[in-house]
Amino acid sequence: MGRVVVEVMPKPEILDPQGKAVVGALPRLGFTQFTGVRQGKRFELEVDGEVTPEILEQARKAAEQVLSNPVIEDVVAVVDASEGVAAAAPQHAGPA
């Protein structure tokens, strides 16, 4: 059985109240080295058999159409969990 991991993050211009709450709590807990937090979503999709490039492409399409809200979120990774091999997905390079 194979597994595909999909990661979705809020677009950089979208407010992230959960991330703000976490970044506010970190210094109070002694973690002063972190200056920003963005909270996203992770999905694990299981498939029968091995993860092929075609499966990764279908997972990317599902991520864009079902697993994310393209108005406010970016699909940042679609990977074969067993190999860590990324499929074609835009990578989020926005501020932390």
As laid out across the biggest beta sheet, the strand order is: 2-1-3-4
What is the general shape?
elongated
Structural class: alpha+beta
> Which ranges are low-confidence, i.e. pLDDT below 50, for 5 or more consecutive residues?
87-96
Rg (CA only):
15 Å
- What is the CATH class? Alpha Beta
How many domains would you count in the coordinates?
A: 1
Number of helices: 2
Considering the protein shown, what is the CATH homologous superfamily? Answer: Phosphoribosylformylglycinamidine synthase subunit PurS
Main location: cytoplasm
Organism: Myceligenerans xiligouense
Protein name: Phosphoribosylformylglycinamidine synthase subunit PurS
Keywords: ATP-binding, Cytoplasm, Ligase, Nucleotide-binding, Purine biosynthesis
What does this protein structure show overall?
Part of the FGAM synthase complex composed of 1 PurL, 1 PurQ and 2 PurS subunits. Its EC number is 6.3.5.3. Pfam families: PurS (PF02700). InterPro entries: PurS, PurS-like_sf. This protein is α+β, with helices and mostly antiparallel strands and 96 residues long. The protein has helices spanning 17-28, 53-67; strands at 2-10, 41-47, 73-80, 85-86. The chain has a single domain (2-86), classed as Mth169, Chain: A (2-Layer Sandwich), CATH 3.30.1280. Helix content is 28%, strand content 27%. The chain has a four-stranded antiparallel sheet with strand order 2-1-3-4, with helices on one face. The protein is elongated.
